[in-house]
Amino acid sequence: MSENPLNIPQRASYPELPDDELVSLYKAGGDKEIIGELYTRYAHLMMGVCMKYLKKESEAQDALMHVFERLFDFLKMYEIGYFKSWLYSVTKHHCLLLLKKNKEYAYEDDILVWKSPKEFVEFGDDLTLTGRLEKGDQTRELMQAIEQLNDEQRICVELFYLKEKSYQEVQDITRFTYKQVKSYIQNGKRNLRIILSKSNGTPV
Amino acid sequence: MERLSDQHKVFTPSGCLTQEALQAYVKGHCSPEVLRKIEIHLTDCPLCSDATEGFAEEPGNLSALSRLDNIRKQLFQEKEEETRVIPLIAPVKKTKNRQILYISIAASFILVCTSFFAIRYLVMNSQQDQVSMTAYQETDKSENTGETAEEAVPDAAGQIISDSMSPRKDMTDHNRNNKDIPDPVKEGAKGGTVIMPGTLDMIADDETYKSIVNEVYFSVDADLGLVELPVEEKQVVASEDENKLPEQTKNKETDKVEQTVAGTRTNGATGKTQKKSEVQQAPASATGDARDELNSGMESYREGDYSGAAEKFDRALVNEPDQAQALYYSGMSYFYTGDYDQALQMFGKVVKNKKSSYYHAARWQISVIQIRQGKTQEARKTLNAIIDEDSPYRKQAEEEIELLNK
Fold first, then answer.
1. Is the CB of residue B61 less than 8 Å away from at least one CB of chain A?
2. Which residues does A133 contact at the CB level (< 8 Å), separation at least 6?
C-alpha cells in the first residue's frame, strides 16, 4: 500500500468532499484536479453571475477565465473562510471592477478584492429561520415578526413560505416581476432575522 | 422534454445548483417538488440567485454554458504549459490580446528576414574578398619581377602595423566606399591592379601582397580615382613612347609621369572616361608640378627611400598644401624614418578632413605613433574614437585596447 503522508484522497473521491476540505487539500498538495472539481461545482453559476453584471457572453467568459486562473495561486496564498461566499464575492467584485473601470482593468484593485472582498456575503446564516418557515412554523413570535415587515415583503413572504407558492405564482398574484418577488422574499427574510434577534436578544 | 425530478441530481456537494438543475430551472423544466427546493435555496444563496437571474434575463444566455468545457480545457492546458516551460510570450487569453501574438509573429518574421539578408551580404563580401585575393595572387605569379616586398618595404612599422594591418576585408570595404575607385575584383580579373590609400602600409607584412607592392606604381591619387597600370602595360606604353620620342628616355622621371597619364587614358578608353577628363582638365602649371613631385615621392617611397620621399612630398605640398595623398605618404615617410613628431603633424592635417579617403588610415597611424611614444592615455582616446566611428580599423583598435589593458 502506497504512503500518503498528507492523507490526500484519491481523485475519485474529490466530488464527494465538501468545499472546505478541497481547499485544505489544495493548499497542502496543489493538485490541479481539485481546481477541476471546484470548476465543475461553480463554473456554471459563476458564468451566470458574470452574465448578470456584464451582459455580454464574451466578456463573461473572459471574466470567468480570469477568476479561475487566479484561483490556482490565490487559493494557496489567502486564508479563505467560507469558500462559496468568498468565490461569489470575488467574482461579483471582478465584474463590478470591469464595469467601474470601463474595462481598463486595474490589477492592484483586483488583488485587494481577492484578499478581502468588501461585501463578504454570509450564506446559509439563517438556516434555522428557513427551516422554521419551511416547516410552516406559525408561532406567535414568528407571526408578529412577519407583521412588522413592509407590505411587499410581508405579502411575498406569506405567499412563498406559508402558502407555499412558487415565484411564478407569487408573480401572478401580486403582479410583481420575478426580480421583485425574489428581492422581497430575500429582504423580508433578512429583516425577519433582525427582528427576531432583537426580540430574543440572541442571533437567529 | 423530461422534467427535472428528485431522481436527478439537483444540488452539488456544496449545496448549490448543478448545471443541469440551473438549466432546467431557467427553462421551467422542473417538477413542482424540485422547483420548491430550488426556490427555497435561492432565498439563501446569492450565488445561485444571481446565476439564475443572469440566465433568466435572456434565455439565449444559456448558450454560454455550452462553452464551459472549452474554457476548462483552455484553462488547464495553459496551466499545464506554464508548469512545463517558462513561456516566451505571455499566454493569450482574450481575443483582443491575440493581436499582440500576431504582431510578435510578424516582428519575428521581419527579424529573421533581416538576419538572412545581413548574413547573405556578409557571405557575399567574404566571397568577393577571396576572388580579389585570387586575382592579386594570379597577377603576382604572372608578373614575377624577382624583387621581394621585404626589400622594397622595410618592417619599420613594427609589430603593431604588421599584426593589425594584415586583414584584407577592411581595405576592400574601404575601397567600396569610394565610388570613384574601380572594383578591385574587376580590375584584378582584367590583369590590372588597384592601389588604395594606405594599401602599401597595410599590406606590408602580408606575404600574399608583398610582391604586389613592388610591381605597381603609386603615381595615382586615389582621390582622383585614377587606376594604376600593371607593369606589363606600362612597359608597353613606355616602349612605344621610346620609339616615338627617343629623346625623352633621357629623363626617366618625365617618362614615368607620362606613362602613368597614358595608362590612365588607356583605362579611360575601357570605360573610365570621367577620370580621363579629370586628368585632362587638371592645370598644367603648379598642379602639374605638384603631381610630378607627388609621383616622384611615391616612387622613392616604393623604393624605400623614405627621406627622399619625404622631401618630394613636402615639395608637392608647397603647391598643394591640402593634397591628402601627399600629406598621408609624407606622414608615412616620416614615420619610417622615425620622425614621429613630423609624422603626427602630417597625419593631423589629414584627419582634419573627415571626408578624405585617407582619414581612417591616418587616424590609425596616429594611434600607432602614440603607442610607440608611450602616450598610452592619448592612444586609448584615439583608439576609442576609431571604435566609435565604426572605422575600418575598428577591429584592430579593439585588439590594441585589449593589449594596452593587459
1. yes
2. A142, A157, A161, A162, A189
Q: Which residues make Cβ contacts (< 8 Å) with residue A15, sequence separation at least 6?
A: A37, A40, B13
Distance from C-alpha of B87 to C-alpha of A181, rounded to nearest angstrom: 50
Pairwise CA distance, residues A41 & B121, whole Å: 62
B370-388: per-residue pLDDT in tens? 888 888 888 988 998 888 8
Which residues on chain B are in Cβ contact (under 8 Å) with A130? 40, 43-44
Tell me the shortest Cα–Cα distance from B73 to chain A, in angstroms.
10
Q: What cell numbers appear for B399 in the block?
A: 585588439
**pLDDT band, very low/low/confident/very high, at B366 (cuts 50, 70, 90):** very high
Q: What residues does B11 pair with on adjacent strands?
A: B17
Q: What is the pTM of this model?
A: 0.45
Cα A203 from Cα A23, distance rounded (Å): 29
Strands (DSSP E) along B317-366, which ranges?
Answer: none
CA B97 to chain centre: 38
- Contact residues, chain A, for B55 at CB < 8 Å: 48, 51
Yes or no, beta carbons of A47 and B51 under 8 Å apart:
yes
pLDDT tens digits for B210-233? 444 444 433 333 333 333 333 434
With an 8 Å Cβ cutoff, are A41 and B64 in contact? Answer: no
Q: Look up the ipTM and state it.
A: 0.83
B173-188: average pLDDT:
38
Those residues with Cβ within 8 angstroms of residue A159's Cβ, 6 or more apart along the chain or in another chain: A165, A169, A170, A173, A174
Does residue B246 surpass a pLDDT of 80? no
How far, in Å, CA of B62 to CA of B26, rounded? 8
> Which of chain A's residues have a Cβ under 8 Å away from the Cβ of B47?
42, 45-46, 49, 84, 87-88, 123
Task: Retrieve residue A133's grid coordinates.
Answer: 418557515
**Contact state of B72 with A36 under an 8 Å Cβ cutoff:** yes
Buried b / exposed e along A115-133 (16+ C-beta atoms within 10 A): eebeeebebebbeebbebb
Place of cell 602595423: B161
Which residues of chain A have a CB within 8 Å of the CB of B30? Answer: none
Would you call B17 helix, strand, or coil by DSSP?
strand
Does the beta-carbon distance from A52 to B54 stay under 8 Å? yes
pLDDT tens digits along B79-130: 766 665 555 555 555 555 677 888 888 999 999 989 998 988 888 877 776 7
B43 CB neighbours in chain A (<8 A) are: 130, 160, 182, 185-186, 189
Q: Which residue's C-alpha cell is 461545482?
A: A41
C-alpha B276/C-alpha B181 separation (Å) is: 13
Q: What is the pLDDT of residue B212?
A: 41
DSSP state of B4: B
